[in-house]
Design a protein that fits this description.
607 residues; alpha/beta; eight-stranded parallel barrel; six-stranded antiparallel β-sheet; 34 strands; binds alpha-D-glucopyranuronic acid
């Protein structure tokens, strides 16, 4: 029988976990660095009561019995395995709805360790709270299920038998982002790739470059930005090379590890959906060299217009979750990204709202190549603890990780800071501070939030929806979610609605739609039929078309997605059915309704 004192000691020691935090270093563009991919099968051990973390139960010590008397009550060898990357929920039946902690282990040899290199374990994302350990040492913890992080292992790595042991806990908590209730599936685990990354002792951990919008209409344009270096010994110079633009510029590195630059270029081809032009851009500093494919464009608002490269644009969009419906998993590959972008392009889209959290990097890079514009957001969704300053700190941390990752992506044009949150004072303050913070990190993109109409009747007849959310003053674009005809009334209720705001800003309808079972056909007033959904789209599109200042739409949603909130038997069965495509990849009638509408918008534009 286990001695309860040992048990209590183990639990008590485990509580102050986070203060053991090592330095989480951001390293951009892993794919262009020297790296060893650690994806594949990882052993795992379920830790339902979070007891395996510390003290005598320190599972990350990877202990094995040394002799017959030894008592070691866990083993990674043998152990069950899980695929990484991948949510654990679809991999083992007993893990379908498991929410808790799981310890993963991967072992590997690294024969050619170079003394001139530093080594990091880089994780594309792990949901939600992650403890990373290496060769028996705790490196640190990370919170947030959708952004990359890495920890250094230079002093720990050895030629043989290295072991990475990672604890991932996807339980939902009130002070988390997202909070406890979401209308999407809480895929737990190491959901994106893990790599061992080798960089020179002084390296470029990130770089930022963008077209200076004040030079948009000039013959000679300016590309400005900065390189961020890490290392004890900084080089005297750094270099930027853009072969196609005949740029090969030396930069002086002063005492700070941030090298700012502004480079004049001629004959710059601007990135746009019609011409997704990417340039190879090479950053060099000391022994380090990183190459990336980057497009240059400007994004601005002018009154109620949205200007891409100075020209008004209409966003023919759709919403999307980061899931491959056919495999029922969190998306994590270029194939997963290709699947959904192909569907979006078939729909006639030039824009996608990546809801409600940072999606995998592959889809953002593929959107760059294909000329699809993106809206990105953090899961500041229902039930956020707005009055908790720690939660604001977490939001800033998650946003800085996202912006660090996608700043150089031309496709990404809008940062959204919230979805459907009531305008109470604590929330207004929180989001106001977050909007200001995001602007300090990135002044090349626009900021929005998916808002709701004014709830209380403010003297306007209820045929007029008004928008006076105080957060709008902090935003560039008014985005509204509207489910008239589904959550309120029937589709024909859309006929005598109009939208009013005093604010001189562009408007995006960031969500509308209704559910349908693919293959169920009936009259257009029968809920869950394809005909009802198509009828709802017809009426909604006509209603939104009348909005003065409408610059885009992102209907909810491209494809059915998994949600624990949706349990209507024989209809939902764990899926939100508002997709225009079923989880098996079959298109519903409304897909063609929207496709025709976007076609008409393109014809209108070309006139
Ligand atoms: C909300 C919400 C979505 C949700 C959708 C729905 O507006 O933002 O996350 O899935 O409505 O009810 O289907």
């Amino acid at each position: 029988m286990m001695n309860w004192k040992v048990f209590l000691f183990a639990v008590l020691v485990s509580i102050p976990f986070s203060f053991l935090k090592g330095q989480d270093v951001f390293i951009a563009n892993i794919q262009d660095r020297e790296h060893r991919c650690l994806d594949g099968k990882w052993e795992y051990i379920i830790d339902a009561y979070r007891t395996w973390g510390m003290g005598g139960m320190a599972i990350y010590k990877n202990a094995t019995p040394k002799n017959k008397t030894d008592r070691v009550e866990y083993s990674f060898n043998p152990a069950q395995t899980l695929w990484v990357p991948g949510g654990w929920n679809v991999q083992q039946p007993e893990l379908t709805y498991y929410e808790g902690n799981i310890w993963y282990r991967k072992t590997f040899n690294e024969e050619n360790i170079s003394k001139n290199n530093r080594y990091f374990i880089h994780i594309g994302a792990a949901n939600y709270k992650t403890t990373v350990t290496f060769n028996g040492t705790i490196l640190g913890t990370h919170e947030g299920g959708f952004t990359p992080f890495s920890f250094e292992v230079t002093d720990l790595i050895q030629p043989k038998d290295n072991y990475v042991i990672i604890g991932v806990d996807n339980s939902r908590q009130r002070d988390y982002i997202p909070a406890e209730v979401t209308d999407w599936f809480n895929h737990g685990g190491i959901t994106r790739s893990v790599n061992l990354v080798a960089v020179p002792s002084t390296f470029i951990n990130n770089y930022f470059i963008a077209l200076d919008k004040s030079t948009l209409h000039k013959k000679t344009k300016a590309l400005s930005g900065k390189m961020v270096l890490t290392g004890d010994v900084l080089p005297e110079t750094a270099r930027i090379i853009i072969p196609e633009l005949k740029v090969n510029q030396e930069l002086t590195v002063n005492s700070s590890s941030v090298v700012e630059f502004s480079i004049d270029v001629k004959h710059l081809e601007l990135w746009s959906p019609d011409n997704p032009k990417l340039y190879q851009v090479i950053f060099e500093a000391g022994e380090d060299r990183v190459s990336d494919e980057i497009g240059f464009r400007t994004m601005e608002t002018k009154g109620k217009q949205l200007l891409l490269n100075g020209t008004p644009i209409f966003l023919k969009g759709i919403c999307l979750h980061d899931e491959n419906p056919l495999r029922q998993v969190r998306a994590n590959s270029m194939e997963d990204a290709k699947l959904v972008l192909d569907w979006a392009e078939e729909l006639g889209c030039n824009f996608i709202r990546l809801a409600h959290y940072p999606h995998q990097e592959n889809i953002v890079r593929l959107a760059d190549q294909r000329g699809i514009l993106l809206w990105e957001e953090l899961p500041l969704y229902w039930g956020i603890q707005w009055d908790n300053p720690e939660v604001l700190t977490k939001a800033k941390q998650q946003y800085s990780e996202l912006i660090n990752r996608d700043y150089n992506r031309a496709s990404s044009i809008i940062w959204s800071i919230a979805n459907e949150t009531a305008p109470i004072p604590a929330r207004n303050e929180f989001l106001g501070a977050l909007a200001d913070y995001v602007r300090t990190l990135d002044d090349t993109r626009l900021i929005s939030a998916a808002c709701k109409k004014d709830q209380e009747l403010d003297g306007h007849p209820d045929s007029v929806y008004t928008y006076n959310d105080p957060i709008l003053k902090k935003l560039d674009i008014l985005s509204l979610n509207e489910y008239l005809g589904w959550y309120g009334g029937l589709p024909d209720a859309c006929r005598n609605k109009s939208f009013h705001t005093d604010l001189d800003m562009p408007i995006i309808v960031s969500e509308f739609g209704g559910g349908a079972i693919q293959g169920f056909h009936a009259d257009s007033l029968t809920r869950w039929s394809e005909e009802f959904q198509a009828y709802l789209y017809e009426e909604s599109l006509a209603m939104f078309d009348s909005i003065d200042g409408l610059v885009g739409l992102t209907p909810w949603i491209l494809v059915d997605f998994r949600s624990p909130l949706r349990q209507l038997h024989g209809v939902q069965d764990g899926w939100n059915r508002k997709g225009l495509i079923s989880e098996k990849g079959y298109k519903k009638k409304a897909f063609f309704t929207l496709q025709a509408y976007y076609k008409s918008k393109s014809i209108e534009k070309d006139k």
